Amino acid sequence: MKKNLQQWYGATFQLTRPRSTQSKLVTKTIASMYMVLFCVVGAFAQDERSPDLDMLLQNKEQVEEEKERSGPAIIELGNEFQNSIQLLGNRFRIDNDVDEVTMVFFREPGSSPIVLVRPDGSKVFLEDDDDDNMLRWYETETYDMISIKKPMPGPWQAVGQVLDGSKIMVIADIVLDAKPIPPNIYSGEIIKQTAVLRNAGKQVDFSPFRDVVSLSIDFVSNNNPNYENFGLGSRTIARFQDNGEGFDEVAADGVFTGQFNLSIPSGEWRPTFSIRTPMYTREQINETVILHKNPIRIETIIDETNEGEHVILIDVDPEHIKLDSLLVDGKIKRPNGETDNISLTELSSEARKVKVLNDSFGIYRINITTFAETVNGRDVIIDVPEHTFVTKAPPPPEPEPVPEAEIEGASPSLDLQPFAEPIEPEWSAADTFTVVIAINLCILIFGGLSLFLIINKRNNPDDNILMRLQESALSLLSKIKNIIPKKSAKTEEATSGKKESE
């Protein structure tokens, strides 16, 4: 009975050895009372659960029905009384033919990781992941993901603050059930694709589970040298969301929506559906698709008169798109910053024309989205790469020639050229650099000369260069003074002789 109590109720009794005979007697008495009490409760619980438990363990057909209702590898175990006991809540059973099981337990945000109790009563903790090669445990603030290889068959328990109404999910075979991608698609095409997540063939509609898995589609190049995508590897083109944003219609309804924007080089690609969890990644490779070049063509006729309108022609590749199904929506940004909206909703078998007023010079930018139907009858939405064209301002007019008659009849003193103010040269950075260098050279020359004279005077106080220069200057001045009076005397004599001769 005690062993059964330990297995089913998790109650373990540890009797501490007393130090005295009296303490032993008291301890044995208390232990006996507890044993009697638990025997009564256990017998009552045994009576309460025995019909359901016996049916669950002995009736094979009932077990199979429970499996189909709760999943292929796990069933709930215990009646309402047993599951109302905190230690025995969140009970489940693992079959003996399960090689590996991955479980997800959603719990209160910020709560501690759960504790697993094996059928033999032993505990499995988060820390056991470091030492046990058969156990992998990934925990966050909101859930625990646990993977166990060759788990012990029988009833298991999960102890922790598991969310009310939460499901103990066993990941058996997670796949993304999505519609196949069309075999012929186009660069720039926008595709909305919905998919559901299935676990062992059943749709997963439990909203917290969307935080556990990551869903995406990659395009892997076939490396065909005849196409542009040769050697490009893989490109992620879509991520599936179930958050009610973008193309997703309803949040947390179990239907994931992916929006494709095929802005990748054309060529042969293999769509690869990837499902990633914190513990493993699974891929599903679909049939090869051909991504064709963008089938929308834009041509421009530029106005050369600089007074009319530019013409934009929007056409399609007739091998892929029906021209009479083409609708156009977009914008044209002119060089002056103004924007013209484009909305062409009239169906026609001719190329669409858009006229733009030629009132500015520079770059015109055209961004459009087209809605059309393929030759196979599939509706498509295609983003067209930005198309640009450039216009230049006309050259200035040449000056009018002046008639020769006017030039001959004009007064010789008349200046025919118009008065033009002298153009002052602009001061450039090179001029500033030259002036700075000249000033520095002057400072260096005069500074060095002054320093040389000071040192020479200090070393030769009685005979230095300054004294010599001073003496030379004085002698030069005395010579000049002597020369000037002699010239003046000669000039006076010559003047007086001239007067006498007259």
From TrEMBL:
<dbReference type="InterPro" id="IPR020010">
    <property type="entry name" value="CHP03503"/>
</dbReference>
<feature type="transmembrane region" description="Helical">
    <location>
        <begin position="433"/>
        <end position="455"/>
    </location>
</feature>
<protein>
    <submittedName>
        <fullName>TIGR03503 family protein</fullName>
    </submittedName>
</protein>
<keyword id="KW-0472">Membrane</keyword>
<feature type="transmembrane region" description="Helical">
    <location>
        <begin position="25"/>
        <end position="45"/>
    </location>
</feature>
<keyword id="KW-0812">Transmembrane</keyword>
<keyword id="KW-1133">Transmembrane helix</keyword>
